[in-house]
Amino acid sequence: MRKKHRLRKEEVQGIVFANIPLLGFCIFGLLPLIVSFYLSFNSFKGLRIQTAEYVGFENFKEIFKDDLFYQSLGNTAFVLLATVTALVLSVIVSALIATNVRGAKGFKAVYFVPYVCSMVAITFMWKWIYDYNYGMLNTTLMEWGWIKEPIDWLGSEDYYRTAMFILLVWSSMGFNIILLTAALLAVPRELHEAAEMDGAGEIRRFFKITLPLISPTIFYLLIIGLIGSLQEFTRFQIMTSDGGPGYQGLTVVFYLYRKLFNASGGSDLGVASAMGWIIAVLISAVTLVNFKLQRKWVNYD
Amino acid sequence: MKFTRIIAFVLALVSLLGMTACSVAGGKPSNGKTTLQFWGWGDAVEAEVFQEITNRFNETVGKEKNITVKYVQKASSSYSSDAALALSGNHTPDIVYVEDKYVKSWAEAEYLVQLDNGKYTDFDFANAGGEIWENAISRYRFDPKTATSTADAPLWALPKDIGPTVLYYNAAYLKQLQITEISVPENELEAYNATNGTAYTAKGYDSANRVFNNRIAMNWSEIIELAKEMQKIDGCDYGYYNEWWYAYGWSVGGDVVEYMPEGYYKFTLNDTSKNYIVKDDVESVTINGTTYTAGQVISYVDKAAITDKASLNELPSMYDAFLEFVALTAKEGSVVGTRSDGTKQLGYGVSMGANSLGTADAEDYFVSGKFGMFVDGRWEVPTLRQNMSKSGKWGEGSWNVAPLPVYKEYDANGNVTVHGVAGGHSGSMGLAIAEGSDNKQAAFEFLKFVAGEEGQKAQAEAGFAIPNQKALANSEIFLQPDQDPKNSIVFIEAAGVQRPGDWWSLTNSAWIDDWANYLNYTVRENKATVDEMFEKYADATQKKLNKYTNYKG
Question: Does B517 contact A127 at a Cβ distance shorter than 8 Å?
Fold first, then answer.
């Protein structure tokens, strides 16, 4: 007969301490998740949960019938593109910094500045840079004679995406560069020396040795970058709180926000909750696809 | 070691419990004493004024009735969403502000207490219009069952203030252009001319004689002429900035939506049919069972039944009025759209699109001299007093206010032959009692105080809004004739005729968002015409409007 294992005092203390954050997660993470699931199948008067009326999948249908939802998906895909671009540029910049050129530490600090600054502050700074009448960008371009009239960076469908692309890439590179530089410096020099002796050029060595060895770091940055992109809201909401020209600034989370806190009055709690679950499924799907694909290109050896 | 573990455990538990939300409610009465929570907003000046009003209430009415009000200042940028969240819960503040654009949705969501349901006596709701601006109180009436705001619909808030819009103009520019500025109401013009030997016409801006009368509204052509004059001054990029169509559309009796007898809202911004107004020398006329008196515009529903136009003057269609507005920002000579008569509306190039303001506000451009005139509300006055009247660049008397433009036609002698009505929008903030309040009767006592003479006087003295009481608004306490703008009587005249903008028309403005985005980003930036805008959005907007009343037609 198995002897009943009596928990030692240390084990009890360990379980108690471990359960406190778990309790926190249950109250502030799991419970809201369950409530949100319930909300997504009901309609309400304003934000009053007491007025819940079961509507089945109507909230989801309303979203899928809305053209703005598909536009927000397209806009979010644009943000994903900016994230991937930022990652590629970060790899290139990191490769240059990791060669220990003069001033490499200074460059690292400069690239890391956007990461340590408040996202709100950075966005406001760029909003002023892009300002139609007083912005530094238009003023400089006109001073140099590159343009004759100011460009409406945030008010024109022709330029809005370009303006946001620059902001997104610029503000995303800092963290990537720090991690990638560390990963690059951890690549054993002997491998490069051996390959050099075998006649491999710099570029070949980079693609055949360096990239595979830093691929786990790239994969990690890709995953968190994509998840962050799918949750993008702050930068677009500050730049153009009404969704921007032709709603080019409406991401999926911004779409959810507008459903919940309709600036023009009224809130749709049920639809906003349904949208939250659609976003959750989207993030899960993108993450799952990436985890499946990682076998093809991520090297953990 | 054991002691350390105990401390660590307690700290972990406390930090977990500390994350729970705190109660925001006032309190249930205890020992006969009632404590209320009043959520306010605004800048430092307004916060100070309302703290003072709250203190005065606590020392007078509050002391008598054993009520204490605690004033809680909230961030203005997120006030409405914070309040909506609080009101949706079980522990709410007792008294809140409600913007006129939210009152319908909040009433529908049962956040607010109906004030005229017979439970709150000692306030004459029926005759409130006699003392309080009628269009200030009527905007807080709404029937969630029918989605309409008739005169007998339930009342959800009392107006705290009213902020009408007027035309701000740079008086220094007029001097520079050697344009004579006078201030003579139309009904005193004849006597004025006789006394002074002048021959001023009933025009707001008489370009032939270079006279500007800030008591008479300019017509659509006059304001364009004056704007172009101002643009001749170095540094004045745009003579006239206006981001709202209301003064144009409402001046001819049109509107963006009309409630139809079949019980739905019709999208009428693109209505191409003419409008009609009863001639001034006609006592009354009955059309479709409704009697109209001199100077009244025939309603959208009734004008379809007009058979005899002898007593009426014709006004432009809503479509034409809207084109006139959009033409302000369009490049001069560019095609804005097609008028009802088939001719093309061309751009004037006197204004900037709202989206091009960027990070600055309209008053920043006005203070810097880039705008010669702009349309905005009473709330700009403290800023302009500070940045223009007291500045070395401009000085006292460098700016003033005038009525918004009105549609008018003249004869060869400058006498008005056809005129529309004075129109324009006003903003307003209401005071409401939360449905979740445990102290509704006590809260109403505070509401009466703030909306009454005492509270209104304190606000008027601060100068940031027009008191909701007509008599107080017409007094020197508000008019402040020793300060700019010297012509502040224009605010009072505007308050009497203005109404809430299209944000108020329904419980939310989801029906506006799509075409408004296209209007502001595309049409007003000269990338599409108004015709294209309506082709794209008119049907979809009508479908959205039908949902508000569940209209299947």
Answer: no
If asked whether residues A137 and A29 sit together in one domain, one would say no
Residue B196: C-alpha distances to residues B179, B185, B216, B426 (Å): 18, 15, 18, 36
Residues A106, A28, single domain; the answer is no
The answer to whether A275 and A252 are in contact (CB under 8 A) is yes
- What gap in Å lies between CA B89 and CA B24, rounded to an integer? 10
Predicted confidence (pLDDT) at residue B23 exceeds the cutoff of 50: no
* CA distance linking residue B115 with residue B95, whole number of Å: 13
Q: Which two tokens stand for residue B346?
A: 């061309």
Measure the CA–CA gap between A131 and A163, rounded to whole angstroms. Answer: 11
Q: Would you tell me the crossing angle of helices A67-97 and A211-230 to the nearest 10 degrees?
A: 150
In a domain, A3, yes or no: no
Q: A71 and A28 in one domain?
A: no
pLDDT score for B14 = 63
Q: Give the C-alpha separation, A163 to A207, whole Å.
A: 32
- What's the domain count of chain A? 2
B55-73 core/surface letters (b: 16 or more CB in 10 A; e: else): ebbbeebbeeeebbbebeb
Strand partners, A293: none
The per-residue pLDDT for B11 is: 66
CATH top-level class of B34-164+427-504: alpha beta
Average pLDDT rounded to a whole number, residues B279-292:
96
Which pLDDT score is estimated for B527?
A: 87
d(C-alpha B221, C-alpha A31), whole Å:
63
Lowest-confidence pick of A43-52, A260-269, B217-226: A260-269
- Within 8 A of B362 by CB-CB distance, chain A residues are none
Say if residue A21 is in the same domain as residue A152: no
Q: Residue A4 domain-assigned?
A: no
Measured CA angle at A229 (ends A228, A235), to 5 deg:
95
Q: Which of A225, A246, A247 has its CA nearest to residue A237?
A: A247
| Domain edges within chain B | 34-164+427-504, 168-246+352-419, 256-268+317-350+509-553, 275-315
Residue A231's domain comprises 58-297
- Give A266's contacts in chain B (Cβ within 8 Å): 105, 108, 507-508, 510
B 132-161 → A contacts, CB under 8 A: none
pLDDT tens digit sequence for B78-121:
898 889 989 988 789 999 999 998 999 999 999 999 998 887 76
Q: Does A254 touch chain B (CB under 8 A)?
A: no
- Claim to verify: residue A223 and residue A272 sit in the same structural domain: yes
Residue contact A265–B509, C-beta within 8 A: yes
Q: Among A16, A46, A68, whose Cβ lies nearest the Cβ of B9?
A: A16
CB-CB contact of A242 with A27 (8 Å): no
- CA nearest B13 in A: which residue? A20
Using an 8 Å CB-CB cutoff, list chain A residues near B355.
152, 154-155, 245
Q: In the Cβ-directed half-sphere of B83, how many Cα atoms lie within 13 Å?
A: 35
Asked whether residue A13 carries a pLDDT value surpassing 90, the answer given is no
Tell me how many degrees the CA angle B207-B212-B216 measures, rounded to the nearest 5.
110
> Is A2 within a domain?
no
What is the per-residue pLDDT across B234-265, written as a single tens digit (0 to 9) for each? 999 999 999 999 999 999 999 999 999 999 99
Confidence band, pLDDT 50/70/90 cuts, at residue B465? low
The candidate with the shortest Cα–Cα distance to A274, out of A7, A16, A58, is A58
